[in-house]
Amino acid sequence: MRTNWMTWSPALLVTASLMLAACGGAPVEESIPEVSGIGTVEGEANSPIYDRARAYAAANPKRDGGTWNQWCGSLMVRFGQLPDSAVRPTAIEAYRASTIISTNASTAKIGAFHWWDIGSAGHVGADLNGGGGTVFMATYNLSQSWGDAIGVNSVSGYSSKTGARYLGWSMDYAGGRIAGGGGSPGGSLPQTSTEFDGIPGEIYYKRIQTVGQRDFGYTGPIDGVTGPNTEKVRVRITARELNNRGSPRTSAQEDGIPGSIYWTRVQTVGRSFGYTGPIDGIPGPATYKAEHRICGYAVNRAF
């Protein structure tokens, strides 16, 4: 097993180029996002594999002096330090030699490989935090670019952007595995006390962001700092809990926009969380506190 493909001689790298074929899709992809800074800390919920991917991208923003675009299989082998036996000419051939566990991306473990059917060669990425929210890949179709066509996107984000058909996830890449993989998303986060006191804090928002990555397409950092995207996810998580508890149903689960039905449901369900105000669909301090308690309840049971 070679532990670092980047140390090969030029002759062997040429051979590797022939063996590790390009990903599916057009030879040149047009969507090029802004390059994000390579930070050192984005939240405790990020896994060690995520940290390794950031470090790898910082050290290798280009592939042998060129773009990473179309070299998804090469990235998996090099970053994952996979054995020679895992090498396949294309991503789709590696997919056929891998053991698919599920086609539900939200159940993927940290270090899983996600597979797509696109073009003649397919596409693959490595799940850095589990749940399909932060997938390391070589393409221009990224939510965060960490170099020349190297960075991350969610499973849903890549699928919707390219039209690729999602094939599922595996823990192996043609028999090779990423060291340290197999953990569950957000497994190291403690429970949030917001369920009991209605006071939002860092752990509360980290849990919201982690669930948002897994279930609602959130692609921002897991840093416990709220913002427009985190707030939208918070409303969607709360709305899902409300909808699970009866009717009338609120559309805020889909669009993240709270309306009169949403607030009426918060107040109604809030009776179980200490709310004693009127059921009038008009939010105030007591309604907001009940909303946070309901959301805290939901994220404490999400993982």
TrEMBL record:
<keyword id="KW-0732">Signal</keyword>
<protein>
    <recommendedName>
        <fullName>CHAP domain-containing protein</fullName>
    </recommendedName>
</protein>
<feature type="signal peptide">
    <location>
        <begin position="1"/>
        <end position="21"/>
    </location>
</feature>
